[in-house]
Write a structure and sequence with these properties.
single chain, mainly alpha, 0% strand
């Protein structure tokens, strides 16, 4: 567990630094770029690229996640053919997705031309953006298995945001004189990351390409095929469910891209709540694969419980910081007034993220088990609920509708997965510390709201935030809510010379 904790902490630190870069990027965009343009490149482009990646990857991340230990334990590196098939199949899958996208261009014009005309104008640039995301994500999944989660976290959370931030600055200062040029360069950013990671893994001797099928591939071919197909379907329905909100807002809400911008700002800010999740998943996936192979349920239970409480502590604390400062932050930082509408959207999305974080790494546990087919079952339930509910509530309630839909559907989704793991394996992520964390968060909220809710300005932002951090942090330590946080705090005290 110490390896997972160390990699999670380092990766989380990198992710939070990336969040800082992303916050600067978002601040600059929210002050100087029209919400419709922000909604296009940072909302709709990302949503559609992730949906296209989910359709193109053909279940390869699940293949890596489940079978990497078998390739590693039974083959010398030069005969490891796993990534050859992963990249080749991913490329073929993306060609098919591209073909579908070109065929559906008339439908895109019909559905988005009225409310989101700019998307139709820049439609073709989505393809290189999605191609880069597809290849980077496949390499990232492999990087997790070879214990390069720190590097992959840096590239996705920091490097990509640095490149985007530089592009935003160049656009605002007039160096990039046209938004079309900005979009063309932005569309290539993930391709740059994919090349960097690919070259690094090759140079370190951790990735080889060979077209000769190995004995592992031949032995497990049928299992690989069935798992990849099931994982593919599960991934596609999950990503479509997760990113459908921006698509439906752009299609059915008047001035769609403006409201995509509002929704995306709220979603981005809510992503601060979820920052530790990806590093924790990245660090835990390899050990979980190994634990299932070794039939070590005790270790899986420990990872499940610790990931749940650690993520809940982080997510509840970050939610408090943002929610208590939201309106004051928009006004004090002089963001465009349209973004005040993002407050109610953030509240709902934030609660959704807390629920998702608090249920631990259930997706990785199921995905690395012999019951990985349940990924598809739960995903199908999610999409059956998500698509009609998002559409109906977007038409009725506007931008806040999809946020409500996601809260309902992801709550049901995580509940189903919790019940499955408990009944099938007796795995349980919750404890008394879960209740204590929630009570602590509510208490800190009411104290800080009562003290500061009438105050505005930069000084009050600082004082309010400091009060939340001190009260919540002290409560976490005093109540000993996590066995992983206490060693970290002891190390911090030692380095600061505090007895």
């Amino acid at each position: 567990m110490s390896t997972i904790r160390r990699q999670s902490i380092i990766s989380s630190g990198i992710a939070y630094f990336g969040i800082g870069v992303g916050a600067l990027n978002t601040l600059l965009a929210a002050k100087g770029i029209e919400p419709a343009e922000y909604g296009l490149y940072n909302g709709l482009f990302i949503a559609l690229a992730n949906i296209m990646y989910a359709c193109a990857n053909a279940g390869m991340p699940y293949y890596i996640q489940k079978f990497y230990p078998y390739y590693h334990d039974n083959l010398p590196q030069k005969k490891n053919d796993m990534m050859t098939w992963v990249l080749l199949i991913g490329f073929v899958g993306f060609l098919l997705v591209t073909g579908a996208g070109l065929i559906l261009k008339p439908v895109i014009i019909r559905k988005f031309g009225h409310n989101s005309a700019a998307f139709v104008h820049y439609y073709y640039w989505i393809f290189p953006f999605a191609l880069g995301l597809t290849f980077y994500s496949l390499l990232e999944a492999y990087g997790w298995q070879v214990r390069r989660s720190v590097l992959t976290s840096y590239l996705r959370e920091v490097q990509w945001r640095l490149m985007t931030c530089i592009l935003v600055v160049l656009l605002l200062t007039g160096v990039i004189s046209d938004f079309g040029i900005f979009i063309a360069i932005y569309a290539c950013t993930y391709l740059v990351l994919a090349v960097i990671l690919f070259v690094y893994l090759i140079q370190k001797g951790e990735l080889t390409l060979t077209l000769v099928p190995s004995r592992v591939t031949r032995k497990f071919f049928r299992k690989i095929l069935s798992m990849a197909l099931m994982g593919w379907a599960g991934s596609a329905v999950f990503n479509l469910s997760f990113y459908f909100a921006q698509v439906v807002i752009a299609a059915v809400v008047p001035n769609g891209l403006t409201y995509v911008g509002v929704f995306t700002l709220a979603q981005y800010i809510a992503s601060l709540i979820q920052t530790p999740q990806k590093p924790i998943i990245a660090a835990a996936t390899g050990p979980l694969s190994r634990a299932w192979k070794d039939k070590d349920l005790g270790r899986i239970q420990r990872i499940y419980a610790r990931s749940s409480i650690n993520q809940l502590i982080f997510s509840a604390g970050i939610f408090l910081l943002i929610w208590l400062n939201f309106t004051d932050g928009v006004i004090t930082l002089q963001l465009k007034p349209e973004y005040l509408q993002a407050r109610s959207v953030f509240l709902i999305i934030g609660l959704t993220r807390i629920i998702d974080m608090g249920t631990g790494v259930n997706s990785s546990i199921i995905g690395t088990s012999n019951y990985w087919q349940f990924e598809l079952v739960s995903g199908l339930i999610l999409i059956v609920l998500t698509l009609p509910l998002n559409y109906f509530l977007a038409v009725r309630l506007g931008v806040v509708g999809p946020a409500i839909a996601d809260l309902v559907t992801f709550s049901v989704y995580n509940f189903i997965r919790w019940v499955f793991l408990y009944r099938k394996f007796g795995l349980q992520p919750f404890s008394r510390q879960t209740i204590y964390t929630l009570v602590l968060a509510v208490a800190v909220y009411f104290i800080c709201h009562y003290l500061f809710h009438r105050q505005q300005g930069f000084l009050w932002l600082v004082l309010r935030s400091a009060s939340v951090i001190l009260l919540y942090g002290a409560g976490v330590l005093a109540l000993r809510l996590s066995s992983d946080i206490l060693p970290v705090w002891a190390t911090v005290k030692k380095r600061l010379g505090i007895n």
